[in-house]
Amino acid sequence: MTDSDTNVELITAIADLKEQAALALVEKRLAGGEDPLLIIKDCQEGLRRVGLRYERNEYFLAGLIMGGEIFRQVMELVQPVVERQVSGQASGRILLGTVAGDIHDLGKNIVNMLLSCHNFAVYDLGVNVSPTTFAEQAAQVHPHLIGLSGLLTSSYQAMHETVALLRAQGYHGPIVIGGGQLSEEVCRYVGADDWTTDAVTGVELCQRLVAGRGREK
Predict the structure, then answer these.
(1) Is 22 exposed, middle or buried (0-12, 13-18, 19+ CB in 10 A)?
(2) What is the pLDDT of residues 80-135, one digit of tens each?
(3) 26 in Cβ contact with 78 (< 8 Å)
(4) Which pairs count as long-range contacts for 22-30, CB under 8 Å and 24+ apart, including other chains?
(5) Can you give 71-104 as a three-state secondary structure string?
(6) Domain at 141, CATH number
(7) pLDDT category, 4, cuts 50, 70, 90?
(8) Per-residue b or e along 34-47, where b marks 16 or more CB atoms closer than 10 Å to that residue's CB
(9) How far apart (Å, rounded) are the C-alpha atoms in residues 127 and 144?
(10) Is 33 left (phi over 0), alpha (psi -120 to 50) or beta?
(11) Residue 140 CB neighbours (<10 A)
(12) What is the DSSP letter of 58?
């Protein structure tokens, strides 16, 4: 079986909500020494397909919840491996939260875990975080980077207001927005420095931006 076959097999297992099959595949790939970040990417794709099936009314809410639960169990398997592999990475302080009006936190929680594994100090404000709270915490934490998460299209206005307030109150560091439906156009509207639609790429982006600030100083 090729790497491509195993990728498709895991993606399909999660998309079909086959919990035991998905977890067994993850354990097999980890035991074979595969990069855990590649495994996470495949699982994210499977979860994205679950969301599409929900939107097409092929799954009910219970299916959406089950997909999230499978992903949570996958992360429990993957996290210790990531922690063992990562060492000597650039560190920094990151302020993170899901913006006002949005309570989705799966992607944010994955980012939090991966950033922590890469020796970042993560200050997670949770969900439905107001622009004022972001600004107040930024003034206390002095983060090297701020991450705003939002899955709903209605969260874009909250992101815009949050970025505007952070800039008005003197925060000049990078601001990154994250969410499955984002685009360059949304990023420009919000006023953020960059954007990402998946957790693994988002962590790599944060590493580059924080390292870049270190060189500037």
Answers:
(1) buried
(2) 888 777 655 557 999 999 999 999 888 898 898 889 888 899 999 999 999 999 99
(3) yes
(4) 22/46, 22/70, 22/74, 23/70, 23/73, 23/74, 23/77, 26/74, 26/77, 26/78, 27/77, 30/77, 30/78, 30/81
(5) HHHHHHHHHHHHHHHCCCCCCCEEEEEEECCCCC
(6) 3.40.50.280
(7) low
(8) bebbebbbbbbbbb
(9) 21
(10) left
(11) 9
(12) S
- C-alpha atoms less than 13 angstroms from C-alpha of 157 in its C-beta half-sphere: 2
CA distance 143 to 88: 20
For the entire predicted model, the pTM comes to: 0.76
Are residues 9 and 46 part of one domain? yes
Print burial letters for 200-217: b (CB count within 10 Å at least 16), e (below 16).
Answer: bebbebbbebbeebeeee
**How does residue 149 score in pLDDT terms, banded at 50, 70 and 90?**
very high
Instruction: Please tell me whether residues 103 and 204 are part of one structural domain.
Output: yes
172 burial (CB, 10 Å; 0-12 / 13-18 / 19+) is exposed
Examine the domain organization and report whether 196 and 116 are in the same domain: yes
Domain that holds residue 189: 93-216
Whether residue 114 is found in the same domain as residue 77: no
Q: Which amino acid is at 87?
A: S
Give the torsion sign (CA, 82, 83, 84, 88). Answer: positive
* CA-wise closest residue to 143 among 117, 118, 176, 114: 176
